[in-house]
Amino acid sequence: MTRLTESVGESIFPIANSSTILETHALTRRFGKTCAVNNLNLTVPAGEVFGLLGPNGAGKSTAIKMLTTLLPPSAGGATIAGLDIVRQAARVRRAIGYVPQSLSADGSLTGYENLLIFAKLYDIPQKKRENYIQELLNFMGLQDAAHRLVQQYSGGMIRKLEIAQAILHQPLVLFLDEPTVGLDPLARSNVWELVERLRSNFGTTVFLTTHFMEEADVLCDRIAIMHASQIIVTGTPTELKASLNKEDATLDDVFIHYTGDLLASGANYRETSRIRRVAKRLG
Ligand SMILES: Nc1ncnc2c1ncn2[C@@H]1O[C@H](COP(=O)(O)OP(=O)(O)OP(=O)(O)O)[C@@H](O)[C@H]1O
């Protein structure tokens, strides 16, 4: 694999260089007659926080599942760190971290035990495991809760643990699917601060989806708005707001402008039920 990282003092994290780290070429996924992602063309430079926004059912999760090698494309393709997501899927998985919407931490284990399992899964040498885990627990502010069962954690703590699990192997790109859904405002701003620190301290590229426009505005260097399986517009939050030619335009205005009537384009029963389940377990 092309080496895009270098050590930062004693840190376990990589620093990525400024070249393109993620690229999609007409990436497409169909489910029967439904085209969930249609002809997606994206370029993400290393170190960027990139936000994929869109109403329920727009195709964001399907795009992330393809990029994380969990779902094969129907057509087109993508590379991450120069690696093909289909032909070099195993190597792509070593280069990325993924925090799905659904629960990825085991409530019947402690935070430490969850991290230990991931350290073993990622083949982190036994000698290094303890250091890596302790460093991450400190970075996340979870050191005092390390030996408590995760079922006693708050939603915000679970999210932090899930992010810790996903970055234990020092990924170049971290995928976060709706990282703050179901969290209260304080926990949400803790996650925002964490993403900022990941980027600014370690240069981790972050690819996230969110429904929260404020979150996208605060966190993302660039945003793509997706609607009905296609990218409608891409730009920095400032560029997108300026594109409306409206004084004091917000990202909410931008979202409504490009995706139309939110109520009409909202989730169907299955999607609404899934989102509420996620919100409930983190809430
Ligand atoms: N496994 C599947 N089988 C059939 N259709 C699917 C499947 N997964 C997703 N879809 C459909 O593909 C479209 C895009 O779904 P997707 O979950 O990617 O959207 P999303 O933008 O992530 O929505 P949300 O914000 O609700 O997570 C929807 O019409 C959805 O019903």
Walkthrough of the structure:
InterPro entries: AAA+_ATPase, ABC_transporter-like_ATP-bd, ABC_transporter-like_CS, P-loop_NTPase. GO terms for molecular function: ATP binding. It holds the Pfam family ABC_tran. Keywords: ATP-binding, Nucleotide-binding. This is ATP-binding cassette domain-containing protein. With 283 residues, the protein is an alpha/beta fold. It has a single domain, classed as Rossmann fold, CATH 3.40.50. The protein contains ten helices and ten strands. The strands form two sheets. It has a six-stranded mixed sheet with strand order 6-7-8-3-9-10, with helices on both faces. A four-stranded antiparallel sheet has the order 2-1-4-5, with helices on one face. Strand 7, helix 6 and strand 8 form a beta-alpha-beta unit. The longest helix is centred in the last third of the chain and has 18 residues. The radius of gyration is 18 Å and the shape is globular. It binds adenosine-5'-triphosphate. The site of adenosine-5'-triphosphate has 14 residues, from strand 2, helix 1 and helix 10.
CATH names the topology as: Rossmann fold
Q: Are there runs of 5+ residues with pLDDT below 50, and where?
A: 1-17, 262-269
Query: What percent of the residues sit in helical stretches (DSSP H or I)?
Result: 25-40%
The CATH architecture term is 3-Layer(aba) Sandwich
- CA radius of gyration: 18 Å
Strand content: 15-25%
Shape designation: globular
Number of domains: 1
Compute the number of helices: 10
Mean pLDDT: 86
Order of helices and strands: EEEHEEHEHHHEHEHEEHHH
Bound small molecules, by name, code or SMILES, are: adenosine-5'-triphosphate
Q: Note the main sheet.
A: 6 strands, mixed
CATH superfamily: P-loop containing nucleotide triphosphate hydrolases
The CATH class is Alpha Beta
Q: List how many beta strands DSSP finds.
A: 10
Distance from N terminus to C terminus (CA atoms, Å) equals 40 Å
Spatial strand order of the main sheet: 6-7-8-3-9-10
How does the helix and strand content classify structurally? alpha/beta
